[in-house]
Structure formats: C-alpha cells, structure tokens
Amino acid sequence: MKPVNRRHFLRLTGTTLLGMTLGGITLRVNAQEQLQADDPTAKALKYTSQSKIDGSRCGNCMYIQGEDGKEHRPCAIFPGKLVDEDGWCSAWVKRPG
C-alpha cells in the first residue's frame, strides 16, 4: 500500500467538496422548470399564471422565493418548479411586511 501524501490528500478532498457543491447547485438550477397548468398539484390548488384577484399574486405571496422582479421564481408550494410572478393559487398568503 502506497503512503498518502498530506498535500495530495488535502487537494483531493478540497476538489471533491468543490465539485459536490457546484454540482449540487447546477442540478438544482436545471431541475427547475416552469409550472404547467396540467400539473396535478397545480390543478388541485387552482394555479393560474395570471391572477384575477386584485392584490393577490405569486409575487407578493409568502411562499415565493428568489429575487424580486424576476418573471418566474421558485415557490415552496411547488418544489422544483417556477411559478409566474403574476400567477395565483389557492395557497396564496400575503407576505408579511
């Protein structure tokens, strides 16, 4: 068995951790797709990409995530999916503040 060089071990460990971190971020970004109206959860929660209720839209809901001003953003109600900022569903709750 060949002895392990400390520098080689640290370099390998650091590279592995960096790869795992960046790989996870890439997978998360690629996994998100726009929510479709025929999605079973979207149907159950009456999701629509265009809210018809004054003052109630995904953009001001407490479940929306990500940066303000983006057209499509992640939502805690629909994991792995992006919702339209102007959309609405029956789980809508006004964001505090």
From TrEMBL:
<dbReference type="GO" id="GO:0051539">
    <property type="term" value="F:4 iron, 4 sulfur cluster binding"/>
</dbReference>
<dbReference type="GO" id="GO:0019646">
    <property type="term" value="P:aerobic electron transport chain"/>
</dbReference>
<keyword id="KW-0408">Iron</keyword>
<dbReference type="InterPro" id="IPR000170">
    <property type="entry name" value="High_potential_FeS_prot"/>
</dbReference>
<comment type="function">
    <text>Specific class of high-redox-potential 4Fe-4S ferredoxins. Functions in anaerobic electron transport in most purple and in some other photosynthetic bacteria and in at least one genus (Paracoccus) of halophilic, denitrifying bacteria.</text>
</comment>
<dbReference type="InterPro" id="IPR006311">
    <property type="entry name" value="TAT_signal"/>
</dbReference>
<protein>
    <recommendedName>
        <fullName>High-potential iron-sulfur protein</fullName>
    </recommendedName>
</protein>
<dbReference type="GO" id="GO:0009055">
    <property type="term" value="F:electron transfer activity"/>
</dbReference>
<keyword id="KW-0479">Metal-binding</keyword>
<comment type="similarity">
    <text>Belongs to the high-potential iron-sulfur protein (HiPIP) family.</text>
</comment>
<comment type="subunit">
    <text>Homodimer.</text>
</comment>
<dbReference type="InterPro" id="IPR036369">
    <property type="entry name" value="HIPIP_sf"/>
</dbReference>
<keyword id="KW-0813">Transport</keyword>
<keyword id="KW-0249">Electron transport</keyword>
<keyword id="KW-0411">Iron-sulfur</keyword>
<feature type="domain" description="High potential iron-sulfur proteins family profile">
    <location>
        <begin position="29"/>
        <end position="97"/>
    </location>
</feature>
<dbReference type="GO" id="GO:0046872">
    <property type="term" value="F:metal ion binding"/>
</dbReference>
<keyword id="KW-0004">4Fe-4S</keyword>
<dbReference type="Pfam" id="PF01355">
    <property type="entry name" value="HIPIP"/>
</dbReference>
